[in-house]
Amino acid sequence: MEHVETIWITGATSGIGQALVERFVADGKRVAVTARSREKLEKLANGRNAVIPVQADVTDEEDVKRAYAEVRDALGVPDLVIANAGTHINMAASELDAKNCRKLMEVNLFGAITTLLAPLPDMLARGTGHLAGVGSLSSYRGLPLAAAYGATKAGLNNFLQSLRFDVETYGLSVTAINPGFVKTPLTDRNPYPMPMIISAERAAGYIADGLARRKMEIHFPPLFSWSCKLLRILPYPVYHALVRRITGSRNRRG
Fold it and tell me: H/E element holding 154?
């Protein structure tokens, strides 16, 4: 009997997560979907056998472990786990506070790490598996209004890159996913122009294709993401002045 790929994805009820679920189901895969809202999960599953709703809060380690146990009972040890749950708070200098910074860290960084560590012992024992985390091109270098958000995504990128060294000898793959601007409820909050913004469905296409090839990093849209990569090699004062000019932040105080 042909093996049906099994996937567990967090942050599954909106944006990139929801678009990925639909793409995976269309490709004949079975997907366990996790988010905080049971109602939204049931709506996403819509009675489909290929979609298994598993409610959890990724900021609660015990809740994530319980959710993973449910996923394993339903699907076995999944072939692919995608830590996609995330949030964003734009914070100008006058709005920065430790509480909101900590919230972003708990969801975007520690929530992702907790999700990926839950199935890790089973994958190591089995000798196969694929772990992926959704970061952001904002992780490459600092940006206005994104001190905390960018830090969470830079931390996740480094975690994934380092983890790859430790698990690839066991037969596991690790992928860092770094999108540019994708139209989602989160980016709808942004008070500034977003160059080369794409739909969640198009983003899901880039991600699904890259995961199928087990790429170390998936970054998109290509023209924008390669431009961001090139910006990383600029001397920092040049980069700083350029981003100030592009974003108009040199004329804005917060």
Answer: helix 147-167
Q: Contact 8/85 with Cβ under 8 angstroms?
A: no
- Tell me the pairing of strands 30-34 and 172-179: unpaired
> Which of the following is catalytic: 68, 140, 149, 206?
149
How high is the pLDDT of residue 91?
86
Please say whether the beta carbons of 185 and 13 come within 8 A.
no
Q: Residue ranges per domain, the chain? A: 6-251
- CATH number of this structure's domain 6-251, picked from the four choices 3.40.50.300, 1.10.220.10, 3.40.50.850, 3.40.50.720: 3.40.50.720
Q: Per-residue pLDDT averaged across 117-127, rounded?
A: 98
Give the mean pLDDT of 205-216. Answer: 98
Q: How far apart are CA 177 and CA 196, in angstroms?
A: 17
Evaluate if residue 252 carries a pLDDT over 60: no
Nearest to 109 by CA among 143, 85, 82: 85
Predicted confidence (pLDDT) at residue 253 exceeds the cutoff of 60 = no
Q: What is the distance between the alpha carbons of residues 114 and 104, in angstroms, rounded to a whole number?
A: 14
DSSP string, 174-206: EEEEEE--B-STTGGG--S--TT-B-HHHHHHH
Work out the pLDDT band at 219, boundaries 50, 70, 90. Answer: very high
Tell me whether residue 239 is one of the annotated catalytic residues: no
Q: Which element (helix H / strand E) includes 8?
A: strand 6-10
In order, the DSSP letters of 98-144 are HHHHHHHIIIIIIHHHHHHHTTHHHHHHHT-EEEEEE--GGGSS--T
